[in-house]
Amino acid sequence: MSLAIISFSFVFIQKVLMSDTHEEAHTGPIKTPKAFAWVIFLSFVGPIFIIIGLVYYVVTANKPAAGAANTAESVAARIQKVGTVEVRDANRPLKAGEEVYKVQCAACHTAGLAGSPKLGDKSAWAPRIKTGYEALLNSALKGKNAMGAQGGGDHNDVEIGRAVVYMANASGAKFAEPAAPTN
Predict the structure, then answer these.
(1) Of 24, 48, 125, 178, which sits with the fewest C-beta atoms within 10 Å of its C-beta?
(2) What is the CATH number of the domain that holds 141?
């Protein structure tokens, strides 16, 4: 009996609260099951075709390398080997310290650029000379402060050592010039 009263009350309240004057059909743009099927189909397939179209557009665009006038040369430059091998004459005569200085060191040490001591400036070279030949050679080969590493360039380590001795001796040191290595 209580179930019958509850269901009667529910139906009565529903009829009282809902008037017939403001009843509207709850419909949307999809009115048939066929239209609903097309909407479902296009909501999945449409984005796939849009993505495929965008990928095709991006992939097929003709894009030469930045700043490349000749595409073949720019491709060759991008795929070149990381390292190179130079074959040098191991028996060539070693260059003298003054000659290496003129080629490798004079650009900075003549004018005293970037804090480098000028050739012949005894006061600037004195603290460096006190550290010894090995420390000076190490600084020259590996680089120090603004000076880049000189080792591994056009001159071998003995030639760089001779240039160090030339500059230090011109500024008051008494270092012996390194001898050529014997094989």
Answers:
(1) 24
(2) 1.10.760.10
Residues 32-60 pLDDT 10s: 888 889 899 989 999 999 999 999 888 88
Share of the chain above pLDDT 90, in %: 8
In a domain, 124, yes or no: yes
Within-domain flag for 67: no
Q: What is the DSSP string of the chain?
A: -HHHHHHHHHHHHHHHHS-GGG------S--SHHHHHHHHHHHHHHHHHHHHHHHHHHHHS--PPTT-SSHHHHHHHHT--S-------TTSPPPPHHHHIIIIIHHHHTTTGGGPPPTT-HHHHHHHHHT-HHHHHHHHHH-BTTBPP-TTSSS-HHHHHHHHHHHHHTTT--PPPPPPPP-
Residue 112 lies in a domain: yes
Q: What's the predicted TM-score (pTM) here?
A: 0.51
What range does the domain containing 162 cover?
97-169
Per residue in 104-136, pLDDT (tens digit) is 777 788 777 777 788 787 888 788 878 888 887
Among candidates 173, 84, 166, 159, which has minimal Cα distance to 128? 173
The structural domain count of the chain equals: 1
